[in-house]
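Risk register update: the risk of archive-format incompatibility is retired. Evidence:
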Amino acid sequence: MDALSSTLAALADPTRRAMLVRLSQGEATVNELAEPFEISLPAISRHLKVLETAGLISRGRSAQWRPCRLEAAPLKEVDGWLARYRAHWEGSFDKMGAYLTELTKGDENGPKS
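Archived output:
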């Protein structure tokens, strides 16, 4: 699986996205990441393994703790991929805005004959 596909697959799960939100605030231990979820620690570890395999997190060593930290490079790659489509969306919105402006002008000038 290519890196972009791996990243998108990891982001597909809401639990993993919530973990990334938490890690965007700073490092956290596995127990801290598990706290808001009603799932087992082995399930949390599997989610973390998916995030780590996708390169979205890394794990350090601090005594007996292995804090997790966010790695933003894969997210930048997703943003770059989406940027191509963002230009298309914005162009479509601009066209729709121009069309709505034209419709509004027609209303201000009375009914068209």
